[in-house]
Specification:
The structure is a single chain. The protein is mainly alpha-helical and 340 residues long. It has a single domain, classed as ABC transporter involved in vitamin B12 uptake, BtuC (Orthogonal Bundle), CATH 1.10.3470. The protein has 16 helices and no strands. The protein has helices at residues 2-7, 12-34, 42-50, 58-91, 103-117, 123-145, 154-178, 182-189, 198-217, 219-227, 229-234, 239-261, 267-279, 283-307, 316-334, 336-339. Helix 6 packs across helix 7 (154-178). It is globular, with a radius of gyration of 20 Å.
């Protein structure tokens, strides 16, 4: 009976919430394209997107600069939000986030190593290095947190993540200084979307899209795992294989995000918590809504960073951290005891 209950279709209320979130997303996407150092008209946006024969002036600015930038923001926001939701479900840890548990720091360290020892590395190589670094980072965190033979508490995970992140960040900075590549590395680790190209989007889009599809497909199993692993085993789930697949998906999502915009923390922490207020505890509802909400939030952060001090830009990582740190402290104060 429990299995059948979990398989029942999502209700009309959730469909309405998802539709509203998508409308807000479309509106935010239009605002992000329109606003900047030079504002453009809605008619130019329409022409740039739906009339390929049109060219010149603001239309070229939209197609070559703003569209790839905002598409990148959408991909990264959706990827980090879903990766954070999966991590929180797997670990039953309200503080789990790719940026707080070593994934993004590991990807940054791998990025620095690649620039130092393989100067001619292409964008595909950078993305591959970020995947490897993210995997190493999360394995280090879980390895340290599991040294004591007890359940992995949220506090121990965060402490291990902080230690590993600090170590890997120091490694990246040390390599950057030793090989005089600080400028190249900082262009990636500053968390900005400036200079995003269609070529980069073509590389990361299949990785993120396929990972999201697999994540949505495993959402029912993730819901059961998030409640109790013993229950999952009793229902016949192959928990080891499912966990392995989900961790691979997290690594791919976080690694692709770092390869595009650098070390952006807190999105994977904030968005799943906000989404649960509307979607409940069923990950069939949480993951799609988190993807849309994360994309919308990233568009907002990028737009706010461009508009706060025109014509200069505030890095999106600073905007996200400014909003995410108070939320993190609130979760630490209110949430850890209920999830431990």
């Amino acid at each position: 009976m429990k299995t059948q209950a979990r398989r029942k279709p999502l209700n009309y209320s959730y469909t309405l919430k998802l539709l509203i979130s998508m409308i807000i997303f479309v509106a935010m996407f239009a605002v992000a394209i329109r606003l900047g150092a030079k504002n453009v008209s809605l008619s130019d946006i329409w022409s740039a997107v739906f009339q390929p024969e049109q060219a010149g002036g603001d239309i070229s600015i939209i197609r070559e600069l703003r569209l790839p930038r905002e598409v990148g923001a959408v991909l990264v926001g959706a990827a980090l939000a879903v990766a954070g939701a999966i991590m929180q479900g797997l670990t039953r840890n309200p503080l789990a986030d790719p940026g707080l548990l070593g994934l993004t720091a590991g990807a940054n360290a791998a990025l620095a190593v690649s620039f130092a020892f393989i100067p001619a590395i292409g964008y595909f190589g950078i993305m591959l290095a970020c995947f490897i670094g993210a995997a190493c980072g999360v394995m280090l965190v879980f390895g340290i947190a599991a040294l004591r033979r007890q359940n992995l508490s949220p506090l121990r995970m965060v402490l291990a993540g902080s230690a590993v992140s600090a170590l890997l960040t120091a490694v990246a900075e040390g390599i950057s200084l030793q090989f005089k590549i600080s400028k190249n590395v900082s262009m990636w680790t500053s968390g900005g979307l400036v200079g995003t190209t269609w070529g980069q989007i073509q590389f990361i889009t299949p990785v993120i899209a396929i990972s999201l599809i697999f994540a949505f497909g495993l959402s029912r199993q993730l819901t059961i795992l998030s409640l109790n692993e013993g229950t999952a085993v009793g229902l016949g789930l192959k928990t080891t294989q499912i966990k392995l697949i989900l961790y691979v998906l997290i690594t791919l999502l976080a690694g692709a995000s770092v390869a595009l915009v650098g070390n952006v923390a807190f999105i994977g922490l904030m968005i799943p918590h906000l989404v649960r207020l509307f979607a409940g505890t069923d990950y069939r509802a949480i993951l799609p809504l988190a993807a849309v909400t994360g994309a919308t939030f990233m568009l907002f952060a990028d737009t706010f960073g461009r508009m706060i001090n025109v014509p200069f830009e505030t890095p999106v990582v600073a905007i996200v951290a400014m909003l995410g740190l108070p939320f993190f402290l609130f979760i630490v104060r209110k949430g850890v005891r209920s999830f431990s």
